[in-house]
Amino acid sequence: MKAIVIYYSQSGNTEKIAQSVASGLGTKALKLADVNPETLKNYDLIVIGSPVHGGAPNRKVTEFISHMPEIPGKKGGAFCTKSLFGDKTTIAVIRKGLESKGMKFAGSYCAVGFSRFIGDFGPRIFHRGHPTKQELVKAEEFGRGLLQA
Ligand SMILES: Cc1cc2nc3c(=O)[nH]c(=O)nc-3n(C[C@H](O)[C@H](O)[C@H](O)COP(=O)(O)O)c2cc1C
């Protein structure tokens, strides 16, 4: 199965998760900006990751999905990183976008990412050191699981 992991990341958290998901799939993680959506026809499994921004994926991610071609029957997956909440809505938006292209949704994963702003001024204990090693291992397992899903 030919798999691709595509991510958008501003401060590196989603990138770390993307690399672990890709490692579980035995492939590489590519930055959104480096991927031409048209080329996705060549893949059997497409996994897309975004930080949670205002309870939704970053706009670049939703725009990217809207530019993807119809690829009926191909498998899709999603992952995100967040500070506090908004992961379910974020995954739901990515899922809906992939399903609108005819894809079958195979699963999702979300981890906590350290946020400089909230980490410095808010409940720092919840965020420092995230994504943790354990979250990275779970991300890798998520990737591996998608191959069987
Ligand atoms: C503009 C902005 C909006 C955000 N909105 C949310 C949010 O709604 N919910 C949440 O839990 N975290 C929110 N965060 C925190 C990020 O989702 C979190 O730090 C994430 O891990 C960042 O990923 P990145 O390092 O890949 O950019 C927001 C961060 C930014 C910069």
Describe this structure in words.
By secondary structure, the chain is of the alpha/beta class. It has a single domain, classed as Flavodoxin domain (Rossmann fold, 3-Layer(aba) Sandwich), CATH 3.40.50.360. The protein has five helices and six strands; from the N terminus they run βαβββαβαβαα. Strands 1, 2, 3, 4, 5 and 6 form a six-stranded mixed beta sheet that branches. Helix 2 runs parallel beside helix 3 (87-99). It is globular and about 40 Å long. The chain binds flavin mononucleotide (FMN). Flavin mononucleotide binds next to helix 1, strand 3 and strand 5. Flavin mononucleotide binds at residues 9-15, 51-55, 81-86, 113, 115.
Summarize the structure.
This protein has five helices and six strands; from the N terminus they run E-H-E-E-E-H-E-H-E-H-H.
